[in-house]
Specification:
Number of helices: 4
Shape: globular
Radius of gyration: 16 Å
Number of domains: 1
Largest sheet: none
Number of strands: 0
Order of helices and strands: HHHH
C-alpha cells in the first residue's frame, strides 16, 4: 500500500485541509474577534500545526516515492517563502508553535 492509500494519512490530510481553510478564512478578522473567538482561532492554529508536524514526520520516515515528492514540494515551498535551502522544518514548526503559544499567553494576560 502506498503512503497516500493509508486511511490514517487520508484522514489527516482531510483534517489538515479543513483546518487550513477555517484558519485562513478568518485570519484577517483576528484583530476584531471576541476573546472567545480568538481563543478558538488560536486552538485551531495549534491543532493545525500539530497535524502538519505529524504529517511532515511521517513523510520524512516514509520511503514511498510519492511521500518523498510531497516532502520535496514542502521544502520547495519553504524556500519560495524565503527559508534557506537547508532549513530544518522541525525548527520551523517549533518556532511557529512558540509564536502561537505567545499569542495565547498575550490574550490570557489581557483578561
Amino acid at each position: 500500500m502506498s503512503f497516500f492509500e493509508s486511511d490514517i494519512v487520508q484522514t489527516e490530510l482531510k483534517d489538515i485541509s479543513d483546518l487550513q481553510e477555517k484558519v485562513y478564512n478568518k485570519v484577517f478578522e483576528f484583530s476584531s474577534m471576541s476573546k472567545e473567538d480568538k481563543v478558538e482561532h488560536i486552538t485551531m492554529l495549534e491543532d493545525l500545526l500539530k497535524k502538519q508536524q505529524i504529517l511532515y514526520a511521517r513523510l520524512s520516515l516514509s520511503d514511498d516515492p510519492e511521500a518523498q515528492l510531497m516532502k520535496d514540494s514542502i521544502m520547495l515551498s519553504a524556500r519560495q517563502l524565503g527559508f534557506p535551502k537547508d532549513v530544518d522544518l522541525k525548527n520551523v514548526f517549533a518556532n511557529m508553535t512558540n509564536i502561537v503559544d505567545n499569542m495565547r499567553k498575550s490574550l490570557e494576560k489581557r483578561g
